[in-house]
From TrEMBL:
The keyword Nucleotide-binding applies. Belongs to the ABC transporter superfamily. Ycf16 family. Residues 2-246 form the ABC transporter domain. The keyword Nucleotide-binding applies. Keywords: ATP-binding, Nucleotide-binding. CDD domains: ABC_FeS_Assembly. It comes from Bizionia argentinensis JUB59. This is Fe-S cluster assembly ATPase SufC. GO terms for molecular function: ATP binding; ATP hydrolysis activity. Transmembrane segments: none annotated.
Length: 251
């Protein structure tokens, strides 16, 4: 589904990614961990097509399509979803109107008519119930005055509604209490299928108790330096990253 080959990327002429190689197949969950400043969020942003990041070498293909020349909107229409670490507020645009517009723009890009209103409302009701979202919440302006947990839950609601092929969750667990974490993780687990894939970027092993990864990758200094199973996340929780840095220095 996703193939990243020798990816180098920079922002403001500063090199951040220095040779990332990664393959993600349908049905898989990949967790990406690493110290602050190692390139985790940059990788997510580059896959999603954020303009401020410049790919200087290597390539990304998704479903057989080369993404290099596609803008963020085209990538979204292809089925790539990025859940933001810090979702922005959009006053005056309700959660419901935002998601209706997003869904219908994607349908339009595929040559389809707008989703019928009755079908849209049924889907909104089902997905909001799945994530324990109050219906009043859906009429509020997008992220305006939302708590951290509400913002993250709203991101997962958008993912559930858009049904992407690849969902990238950038530190969705940061700032969540245990109850909110369980609800968000439950939403992700209900979304998972043999036809889609999930990349989870996290600092903490606790999220991976709820969303169990097939692979855990450690990024350090802009490269994936170690890959393992969920047990690697427990090892990182217990020992930190210093041993990874030492292994890298001695390699």
């Amino acid at each position: 589904m996703l193939k990243i080959s020798n990816l180098h990327a920079s922002v403001n002429d500063k090199a951040i990614l220095k040779g990332i190689n990664l393959e993600v197949k349908p049905g898989e969950v990949h967790a990406i961990m690493g110290p602050n400043g190692s390139g985790k969020s940059t990788l997510a942003s580059v896959i999603a097509g954020k303009e401020e990041y410049e790919v200087t070498e290597g390539s990304i293909s998704f479903g057989g399509d080369i993404l290099d020349e596609m803008d963020a909107e085209e990538r979204a229409h292809k089925g790539i979803f990025l859940s933001f670490q810090y979702p922005i507020e959009i006053p005056g645009v309700s959660v419901t109107n935002f998601i209706k517009t997003a869904i219908n723009e994607t349908r339009k890009a595929k040559g389809l008519d707008n989703m019928p209103a009755k079908e849209m409302l049924k889907m909104i009701r089902e997905k909001s119930e799945m994530l324990a979202i109050d219906r009043k919440f859906l009429s509020r302006s997008l992220n305006e005055g939302f708590s951290g947990g509400e913002k993250k839950r709203n991101e997962i609601f958008q993912m559930a509604m858009l049904e992407p092929k690849l969902a990238i969750l950038d530190e969705t667990d940061s700032g969540l209490d245990i109850d909110a974490l369980r609800i968000v993780a439950d939403g992700v687990n209900k979304f998972k299928s043999k036809d889609n894939a999930v990349i989870v970027i996290t600092h903490y092993q606790r999220l991976l108790d709820h969303i169990v990864p097939d692979f855990v990758h450690v990024i350090h200094n802009g490269r994936i330096v170690k890959t393992g199973t969920k047990e690697l996340a427990y090892e990182l929780e217990e020992k930190g990253y210093d041993w990874i840095k030492e292994e890298e220095a001695n390699a």
